[in-house]
Amino acid sequence: MSATAAEPWVGKPLKRKEDPRLIMGRARYIDDINVTGQLWASFVRSPEAHARIVSIDTAEAAAQPGVHAVYVGNDLDLEAPLPMAWVPPGVEVKNPPHWALAKDEVHHVGDPVALVIGSDRYAVVDAAQLVSVEYEPLPVVVDLEKAYEGGDLVHADLGTNQCHEWSLGGGDLEAGFNAAEVVVERRIVNHRTAGAAIEPRGVLADYRAGSLTLTSSTQVPHFLRLFLALQLGISEDRVRAIAPEVGGGFGSKLQIYGEEIALAWASRKLERPVKWVESRTEGMLATHHGRDQIAYAKIGATRDGKITAYHTKILQDLGAYLMLLTPTIPSLGAFVMSGVYDIPAVQTDIVGVFTNKMPTDAIRGAGRPEATHQIEMMIDQLADELGMDRLELRRKNFMTPESFPHETALGVVYDSGDYPKALDTLLEMADLDAIKAQAPAGKLRGVGYSTYTEICGLAPSRVTGPSGFGLQTGLWESAMVRVHITGAVTVYTGTSPHGQGLETTMAQIVAQRLGVDPQNVEVIHGDTGTGPQGLGTYGSRSTAVGGESVARATAKIVEKARQIVAHQLEASPEDIELIDGKFAVKGSPDKGMTIGEISGAAYIPENLPEGMEPGLEELAFYDPENFVFPFGAHGCVVEVDPDTGNVDVIKYAAVDDCGPAINPKIIDGQVHGGIVHAIGQALFERIHYDEDGQLVTGNFADYALPSAADVPSFDLDRTETPSPVNSLGVKGIGEAGTIAASPCITNAVIDALRPLGVTFINMPLGPQRVWEAIEEAKR
Amino acid sequence: MIPAEFDYVAPQSLDEALQALAQGGEDAKILAGGHSLIPLMKLRMSQPSLLVDLRQLQDLKSVNADNGQIRLGAMVTHHRVATGNFGLASAAAATIADQQVRNMGTIGGTLAHGDPASDMPAVLLALEGSVVIRGSSGEREVAANDLFEDFLTTAVGEGEILTEVRFPRLEGYGYGYEKFNRRQEDWAMVAVSALVKKAADGTCEDVRIGLTHMGSVPLRATAAEQALRGQPLTAESIASAASHAAEGTEPPADLNASQDYKRHLARVLTRRALTTASE
């Protein structure tokens, strides 16, 4: 029997509990945290994209007043190079050693070569400029396609720039293309971007009395503790990792960074706390990037629009090294390569390629935005080729609502979905064609669509783990719920929210089940020393996996509460349910106890059932059976100035389905941010290295993050198709907007330019590129 | 922000400021809002030994708009220019970056800095305004035409302070300001200032066109001006004149805008700015 609350907290658009402290500057980020005796660190970074380190002279830096130590790569006696967590069975992944400080060779601009530690935050940066490094330049590999073909090598001893090959396919591809009457092929570029969290990274390492406490602006404190223990050779019980308030991550803090390891090592060596906070320039150089792939996509269909086969070959620019998940990112997209379409034969072939750039890794969506961008562009391109309405083509190939759970040709089982309904809802919301028809003189308007799904709730360990996909970890979550004697509740989650509003979402889940106010449910996260274990916040997993573990721990509380109430009121536990904020006897709502009264009875155990332990605190671990598959339909109108190439998004409407909403306001916020993130990639943002491997877009003047002034208001709606995977029925939402929106914008720009003869264009759609495409089409 | 070490003074008078500059030597810099200098210091591309902050100098915050001439103290903020009803200058100032920057940045600061991507240099050039420069040996007035010497190099010498900005109200002129950038708060990829005086017969009696970010200094589009002067202000003649807007320019290219694209933008924006100015 499930308890029902007097207040239906689940589904309410509550304001976020965490916002007052964030908005009013009361939150404590890493930059706010200082400890007695603390030293400061500064890293010396390579200005060369590829070079042999001939010599490093640290004497002048070390002699500066206040400088305590200067370390170079060979000083750091670590147990292992920085971690990479993917060992896919049967696949060779070449993994060149990647040390916290480069030892003999640097492989990208920003590669750290020395660490200066001293008593003054400013003096260590001054001293770092005095470290003299002699480099012998080596050939620089920048262009992805050239690197793939061979020529100069990033890692000479590997003998190739190709790191690995990985494929996922299902169905008879040859038969599928043989059956096709129309085949469309495109080269689709998904360029490199930065996570660009507003709070840069920062680390405070404090080793004392044989134990290490490391505070870091991270999304994954529990992984961090494990790897600190492994890298430094410290027993895991003596390592505590803390993620304080974290000002955004977008995947860029789902990482084990060399700076974290180096500071921990230095703190142990010096027996002093050591702190480092990244500058923005450093962040652009040395915090992992995302995307950066070129796909050669090929889609086949019959003349009447039935897709018969889809093949894509992806070159993934890995950058110079493999970081925690670097080579896995395109593979995450491969699981949903065919999107929302029922395609009988699908294959993705991936080649990871090294270049002399910062490594790529997970950035919001991680592989799935790339996959969605490909299929949604290819659908529009195919519709154009067939002369068919692109929505009709989509509908013709949608997986039908009746087919769920739907096993795709790849053997992936989509949990639930109703794609026609999402598209219908979108079309009811906004008449995009009418807006297009009202284009002012001299301007061109275009409509774009994206009907998407994604795979998230990263999870099911049996699929993702060592003998499956090959991640060397489980991906379960755990939660502990503690009801205090007053009836107030503390929830400990192993996830590590950093802007997602999970303190509110999780409080609503608990409040609903215990009949308390969410304001009295405190959610604690991000500290391996205070709560249960967990695996962090990324992959839109924190509600679908972490939230479910909270619900399960709460269910155990409810079960114990009912036994206590039944015992005290001389009723049967089966007859106790939550009515008007009380656990009461069914049919006699005035005969009941609040959760505070129950916890009072639990903590002053004078009258508990025979053999029952005192207290009211429960722990649950949860490992789902499957992923969850959010989906939706996005549509937009762009206005192009053909004289300048400028693109304005003038309307954006989105319908997203992440299952039953726990907090609609938070969902909307996540969708807003996600869409802006993807508009950023489509129109503005671009990490660019020149031919010498120098980063051209190294600050926010050149790396163009959009602001509120650059995007329209969004029209949002939802459908709610529950997932059968978890008891909440929820799917993820943090990445959905980003996954859906870049092809929506790109398709709209192509739609606008089609009258001028432009039929295809790759992101980023900056004005010069759009203008050049128009000029090209004129010739 | 971790800049190199520097000293800081905020003098109470212009004389004190000049004295501080003189004592600070060649590595002393004036802080007049700081929205260009401080980012450069943050990147350590600028490492001044001394910052002389003009924020306390109330005399440099005065606005005087009598007798058809506008005189603005160097420390007048972009926000005050934007909201001051000064025609072209206000229109341009309103597009500078965002509100926070307009609240801090000053007209004297941006002109003395001489960044060809900034809005106000080409505006002052089109207005045929001038600046007053004070040094230890006295005061001089420098025409806009002589102010901008090279990229980030102006006639404001070592130990001198730009104290006032002057430009005529230009009664009878229409104006247009066209700025093209990627994001709202970005510097101009290209911007065009246009001033047009219509004669009684509807022809162009006078025209002035300023180009932003089309060279190492702000420029006048003299060929386009010549092409329009005396002509009827029709769409055709404006388009024809605008086609000369980029003549002789060597605009600085970057990742987002090639020279060809910037020259094209200059022609498009000139046509638009002239059209607005002629209405």
UniProtKB/TrEMBL annotation, chain A:
It holds the Pfam family MoCoBD_1. Coiled coil: none annotated. It comes from the Bacteria. Residues 24-139 form the Aldehyde oxidase/xanthine dehydrogenase a/b hammerhead domain. Keywords: Molybdenum, Oxidoreductase. The keyword Oxidoreductase applies. This is Xanthine dehydrogenase family protein molybdopterin-binding subunit. It comes from Solirubrobacter deserti.
UniProtKB/TrEMBL annotation, chain B:
Residues 1-172 form the FAD-binding PCMH-type domain. Pfam families: CO_deh_flav_C (PF03450), FAD_binding_5 (PF00941). Keywords: FAD, Flavoprotein, Oxidoreductase. It comes from the Bacteria. SMART domains: CO_deh_flav_C (SM01092). Gene3D superfamilies: 3.30.465.10, CO dehydrogenase flavoprotein, C-terminal domain, Uridine Diphospho-n-acetylenolpyruvylglucosamine Reductase, domain 2. This is Xanthine dehydrogenase family protein subunit M. It comes from Solirubrobacter deserti.
